[in-house]
Amino acid sequence: MADLLSRERCLQLTQYMIDGAVPGTIAALWINLDRFQQVNETFGYAGGDEIIAVIGRRLDEAIGHDAHLSHMGADEFVCLLYAVGEATVTELAERIEVCIKAPLAWGDMTLHPSARIGIAMLETGENAIQLLQRADQAMLRAKRSGQRWLYAHDEDAEQKVRIGLPARTELDIESKLHRAMETGGLDLHYQPILRLDGSVESVEALMRCTVDGHAVPPAIFIPIAEKTGLITRLGEWSLSQGALFARRLQESGHDLKVAVNISRAQLLSPTFAQMLSSAVIYAKIPADRLELELTESLFMDMSRTVQDNLCDVRATGVTLAIDDFGTGYSCLSNLKDIHASKLKLDRAFATALPEDGRAYAIVKAMTRLGQELGMAVVAEGVENEAQIQALKQARVNGVQGHLYASAMSGDTLLEWLRSRTQNNIQKEYDHDSIGR
Ligand code: C2E
Ligand code: MG
Ligand code: MG
User: Fold this and answer.
1) Residue 122 contacts by C-beta under 8 Å, 6 or more apart in sequence?
2) 278 neighbors 245 (Cβ within 8 angstroms)
3) Using an 8 Å Cβ cutoff, are 225 and 261 in contact?
4) Which residue puts its alpha carbon closest to atom 30 of ligand 1?
5) Among the atoms of ligand 1, which is closest to the Cα of residue 225?
């Protein structure tokens, strides 16, 4: 790696380039190799280092004289360049990806390396550390969401807040989460999922965190809990609470599943399935009253422990749902191996309906695909009548969204269900409309 710049030199060079540069004219690409831990485990650290050196040489060749390459340590590289506009930067990201992906013969094996790239363009008033941090964060988000590369400014509003969170704010939220855990500031809210005939099929448990009377949105605290490892405790708590609520539903005469969101870190724990069984037994519910929602990015990189856990989960009778499907790096070959009973189409699709004919074609095809694989297909984020008409035409099995009901406390949900039953709401609607 002799020719590449070190982390310190990278910082110095970035600051040197920034001094006097116009915002938008410098790009930092943060490159992180996928699954490098496995390479180290297989070939040892010395072998891993040699492989990184080969990839470093490949990268150096691919970027040519247009950009500066640094090795930030371990399996991370940074590429810096002067560029006006994103076209040149995207083209470079593509070149980098192609060069990394070329098969690499090593001993008696052929490796297929891959990487995620986070890209940040210089913003007004930014220094070297801030620019590189944004590129690093974008890379992490690309990894989480299964995208090959991602621009830091591609975040939606909530994620932008998150990316921009300074370390102090992250620490503050982390301590708030600890306080919430100790002071009863955590709660689960429940959002109904309806079949097309208007009946309620299940409810999704969504975590809420309130500290000193202020709510912290899940889009802010969940990623921080994931980053700090707190998600394991939070996730365990939401599973046990979700199971207890399934019991409460059953006792109130509602034959409904409770779906609980699960993060990747939870499935990496060898004791996950055991903990899940305990939650089911303690709540005294049939296991199929519980469903686990897993995002598709989780399936991209299935370690042995994740596979074993999923297998054990299915053996208990708890069902699986694939969450937010269709916007990440949907790996169809993995899809065939995951025995989920529900496929939840990401909110982005319902949002694009009915105007976007191409989105409609994709929804129709994904619905067919999911159903052929034995899954019920649910559209998330349904907010208006026109969307529901398009979704009906696409033959989805279920819907979830503010049009029907937002997430609500357990007590409010029971009241909502009770009033629906009492008024016999379904009769008010003709056979092809959906009750609200
Ligand atoms: P998700 O699992 O995809 O949950 C659906 C999100 O969409 C929820 O946001 C819900 O309130 C929102 N939503 C539902 N209908 C609509 C609609 O019609 N329009 C719009 N704009 N939004 C709608 P929420 O509660 O903020 O949760 C965000 C994410 O946080 C969840 O996305 C899930 O990934 C994560 N999360 C929430 N609770 C937990 C948990 O207990 N464990 C883990 N690991 N993640 C959780
Ligand atoms: Mg979910
Ligand atoms: Mg979802």
Assistant:
1) 18, 21, 23, 24, 25, 26, 27, 28, 131
2) no
3) no
4) 218
5) 44
Banded pLDDT at 236 (limits 50, 70, 90):
very high
Write the pLDDT tens digit of every residue in 99-154.
998 888 888 788 888 899 999 998 888 888 889 999 999 998 888 877 788 888 77
Percentage above 70 pLDDT, the chain: 91
Cα 323 to averaged position of ligand 1 atoms, centre (Å): 10
Residue with tokens 């040699």: 50
Q: How far is ligand 1, taken at its centre, from the CA of residue 403, in Å? A: 15
Ligand 1 shell residues, CB under 6 Å: 191, 206-207, 217-219, 222, 235, 238, 261-263, 293, 323-324, 347, 381-383, 400-402, 407
What integer pLDDT is reported at residue 322 of this predicted model?
94
Listed residues: CB within 5 A of ion ligand 3:
323-324, 380
Q: Rounded distance, CA 123 to CA 111, Å?
A: 38
Residue 103: asked if its preceding bond is cis (omega within 30°), the reply is no
All structural domains of the chain, each given as residue ranges with its CATH number in brackets, are: 7-163 (3.30.70.270), 167-340+406-423 (3.20.20.450)
**Atom number in ligand 1 closest to CA 346:** 3
Cβ-proximal residues to 349 (8 Å cutoff; 6+ apart), any chain = 326, 359, 362, 363, 366, 379
Do the Cβ atoms of 141 and 118 come closer than 8 Å? Answer: yes
If you measure from the C-alpha of residue 222 to the centroid of ligand 3, how many angstroms do you get, rounded to a whole number? 13
Kindly report the protein residue whose alpha carbon is nearest to atom 22 of ligand 1.
381
Which tens digit of pLDDT belongs to each residue from 265-296? 898 888 999 999 999 999 999 999 999 999 87
The preferred substitution site among 144, 206, 220, 323 for testing ligand 1, maximizing ligand atoms within 8 Å of CB, is 206
DSSP sequence for 54-95: HHHHHHHHHHTTSSEEEEEETTEEEEEEE-SSHHHHHHHHHH
* Dihedral over alpha carbons 86, 91, 95, 101 (to 10 degrees): 80
pTM check: above 0.70: no
